[in-house]
Amino acid sequence: MVNKVSSNERFEQWIQELDAKIGLVLQNKNTRDEIVKIQKHPGLQPGNLMSRSPSIRDSFNLKSLNKSTRAKLELYQDLFLMLQTQPRYLARLFRKIREQGPGDEEHKRLEMLVMSTFGFAQRRREEYYLLKLLVQSIKEEVDACITLQDFIRGSFFFGKLFGKYTRVPRDRKFIRELLAPVLRTQIIENEHLDLESDPLQIYRSLLNDEELRTGQRGTRDPDIPREQAIRDPQTREAFIHHLQDLRDIVDQFLLCLEEAVQRTPYGTRYIAQQMFEALCLKFPREDRQLLLQCVGNWLWKAYFKPAVTDPETSGVVDRALDPFHKRNVGEFSKVISQVAAGKVFGGDNVYLQPLNSYVTEAMGRLEEVWVQRK
C-alpha cells in the first residue's frame, strides 16, 4: 500500500509538471500562429492583433495555469471526487428530479452526465462507485415509499441508470447466451411456429389458408364473434396446439435461466440483493416471499424484458424481425411477464387462462431462481 501511495504521488507530480509543459507548448503555438497571421496580413500590427484576442493569451498563460486555473482544476477534481465517493448527493438529486417530474430530455442529459462522471463504469473503481450510487438511490426511493405498491408502481431514475450500466459487452454476452437458445432457435428459426392465442385470429388465419389452397372463396363467415370461433373444431385444435408450444418455449426459457443463474454478472446480482434488503428493512411486516417476487419482477422488467422485446438491438439476433416473429416473441414475453409478476391470467387475457396451472408452477420455479440470484 505504501509503495502504491508513493507511486501515485510521483505520478501526480509528473502530471502537474506535464500540465505546465503543455501550457508552454500551447502558448508557443499560439504565438507562432499569430506571427503567421501577421505575415499573411501585412497591415496588421502585432500589438493590435494581440490586444484583440486577450482571451487566447490568458487561457494559456503559465502564471494563470499555475495559480487561478490550477486552483479551479483542483476544485473541480474535489467536486467530482465527492460526487463519486459520496453517493448520497446524487441519490438525493435523483429523488428530487422524480418528484419534480422533468421531461425525457432532462433525464437523458442527466443520464449522460452521471455515466460520464463514472467513466461509463469501464474501470473497476468507477464501476464500484456507480454500484454504490445505484444502491443508495434505491434506498432513498424505498424510504420515500409509504406502501409496497408505491415502489412496485413507481418509475425511478435508478432504473434508467441501471439500464445504461448493463449496456456493456459483459451483460450483452450473458443475455445473448441466455436468450439465443430460446428466441433464435425455438422461435425465430422455426418458420412454422405460430403462438397466436386469439381464437378469432386463428379462425381467420385458417380461413385464409383454405382460400389460398383451394383458390375459392371460403364458405365460413369471417366476422363471427370469438365465442363462436373457439367452437370451430379446427380453430380449437390449432388453439390448443399453440398454447402447448407456448408452454414448451416458456419452460425452455426457465431451464436456461436455472442453468445460467450462477453466471449472472456480479453487478446485477448485487443490485438485486441490496434492493431486497432495503425492502425488508422498510416493510418488515410484509411476507419476504412477496418482497422477493417484487425484486424479481423489477429485474425481469429492467434487465431481461428489453432484450426479449427488442432482440435486434441487444445482439440476441442478427437480423430484424418480421411482424410474424414479433408477434410470437410478444406472446412469449406476455407469459413470462405474468409469471414474473406472480399473477395468473385474468379477464384481460381470458384465452390464456388455460395456462394458469402452468403459470402457478412456473412462479415457484422462478422464485427459486431469484433466491439463488439474491
Give an overview in words:
This protein has 374 residues and is mainly alpha-helical. The protein has 3 domains: 2-66, no CATH class; 87-163, no CATH class; 170-373, GTPase Activation - p120GAP, domain 1. The protein has 19 helices and no strands. It has helices at 2-40, 46-51, 54-59, 62-66, 68-85, 88-100, 104-117, 124-144, 148-153, 157-165, 169-188, 199-214, 226-229, 233-260, 266-282, 288-309, 311-314, 323-341, 356-373.
Task: Outline the secondary-structure elements.
Elements: H1 2-40, H2 46-51, H3 54-59, H4 62-66, H5 68-85, H6 88-100, H7 104-117, H8 124-144, H9 148-153, H10 157-165, H11 169-188, H12 199-214, H13 226-229, H14 233-260, H15 266-282, H16 288-309, H17 311-314, H18 323-341, H19 356-373
What general outline do the C-alpha atoms trace?
Answer: elongated
How many distinct domains?
3
Rounded mean pLDDT is 84
Portion in strands = under 5%
Number of helices: 19
The H/E string reads HHHHHHHHHHHHHHHHHHH
Q: What's the CATH class of the largest domain, please?
A: Mainly Alpha
Q: Roughly how many Å apart are the termini?
A: 33 Å
User: Which superfamily, in CATH terms, is the homologous superfamily of the largest domain?
Assistant: GTPase Activation - p120gap, domain 1
